[in-house]
Amino acid sequence: MAKLIFKSSTNINASVREVWRSLTEPALIKQYMFGTDTVSDWKKGSTITYSGVWNDKPYEDKGTIVDIVPEKLLHTTYFRAMSGKEDIPENYANVIYEVRPEDGHTVFTITQDNINDEAQLQHMEQNWGMVTDSMKKL
Questions:
Q1: pTM
Q2: Looking at residue 2, what is its pLDDT?
Q3: pLDDT of 95-123, one tens digit each?
Q4: Distance CA 37, CA 52 (A)
Q5: What span, in angstroms and rounded, lies between the C-alpha atoms of 11 and 13?
């Protein structure tokens, strides 16, 4: 069965630099990503970890920075530890964040692959919608 892909673009009334900072500064990520602590050196090939507590359960999700072009593109892999799946490459998703200026604001696009079914796709739409709304307020 083919996997599904989530993709969403939104306008953020901030500069590309400000939106980029919100993607790569752990203190800012924590403010819009459900209190998640993020650790990375933000270099191509480096690891990235996301940890915190969700529904009273501690978690540590992880991935790798596949590509990074400052103020343009952040491509990471992502493995959700609480998924119950084996930690093998085919269980990682690609998460791609893109930013570009347009008419005084920033167009922010998120793409995530390796989605199993419509229910998971709807869950991704809700979660990324909350994240994006929180980023806009930030």
A1: 0.90
A2: 66
A3: 999 999 999 999 999 999 999 888 888 88
A4: 6
A5: 7
